[in-house]
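Hi R.,

Here's the input for the zinc ion complex you asked about:
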Amino acid sequence: MKAMIINKICNLNEDKAPLQLAEMPAPVPGNLDVLVKVSACGVCHTELDEIEGRTPPSRLPIVPGHQVVGTISDKGKDVSLFSIGDRVGIAWINSSCGKCRFCLDNNENLCPAFSATGRDANGGYAEYMIVQEDFAYAIPEIFSDAEAAPLLCAGAVGYRSLRLSALINGDNLGLTGFGASAHLVLAVVRHSFPDSRIFVFSRTEAERKFALELGASWAGDFGDAPPDKLHCAIDTTPVWKPVVDTLAHLWPGGRLVINAIRKESIDKEYLLKLNYADHLWMEKEIKSVANVTRKDVDEFLKIAAEIPIRPEIQQYDLADANKALLELKQRKIRGAKVLRVG
Ligand SMILES: [Zn+2]
Ligand SMILES: [Zn+2]
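And here is the predicted structure with zinc ion in place:
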C-alpha cells in the first residue's frame, strides 16, 4: 500500500517536505481488529507537533493521521460490532488500558497508557489501517467521507473543549484562532446555545471574515478588545499571546480552555506580561483539553448529524500531504484540510 510517513523529526521552516511517500505492506488485522480501506483523512495541527518533535511519535517511521474515514475490508475472527463493507471512522484515541482509575472513571483520555492514532500506532495517511473494533465509530449517513473526517478530531476535541468551558446559553464565548476546530465549535454553539454571542479573535483577515460569515457576533485581532467581556473562551492557537490577552477579557469567574496538544515557544516571553491582578485574580481559571474519549466522539457525531453541521473542507491528494501541512503551518486555512486517499 501507499503511505505518507514520518521518518525523522525536523523543522518545517527548513524542510518543506517532511513526509515521505512510501510503499509498505498493508497491515494484517488481529483477532479484534478491523482493516479499514481509507478514503479520507483529516489534516490536524497535531501532525505538525509530531513532525517538529513537540509530541514526537513513540517510534519511527510512523504513518500519521487521526481523522480517518473508510470502509472495512477485512476483520479479525472475534470482531462482532462491524461487518465487512461498513463505513467507519477512527479518531485520536487508538487505545487505553481500560483498567486504571481514569479509564474506569470515564476519563480514558487521561489514561497513562493512552495510545494515539498516527503517533503511537500507524494512522490514516495511508491506503489501509487497522484499529480495534471498539475504537471505531459508525459514521452518520448524512456526511460524505471527506466531510466526516474533520469531525473526528477538530470536531470531537472542539466539542470536548466546549463542554469543559461550561458555557451556558446566553453567555459570551470567545474563540481565539479560527481554524478547523473553532469553525465546528461555532456551528454547535449557534445550534445548542442560540442566545450566546461568539467573539472571534484571529490574526488573519481571512479567518475573521470567515467567522463573521458563519455567524460570529464580532471578529477582531488578538490585541483587540471585544464589545463585551467573555464568560468563557476556547483557545486553539499554537502560541501564548492569545492566552494572556484573553484572560484580561474574562468576566470574574470566567474560564479559558486551551485546546492545543502543545504550545510553540516562539512568543513564550509574552507570558511575562501575565499580571495576577488583571489576568487571574477574581477566580479566573485556565484549563487544558487533553485528547478525547470515545464518548466525546460518539456524542459529537450524533449532534453534528442532528444540526446538521456542514464542515468547510479543502481537499488534497494523499501525495500532496506535505503541501497541506505547510499551508496549515502558514495558516492558509479556511475550515478543515482533508486528504483524499484511495
Ligand atoms: Zn487532531
Ligand atoms: Zn487506563
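One thing worth noting: The chain has two domains: 2-152+292-340, 156-288.

Cheers,
M.
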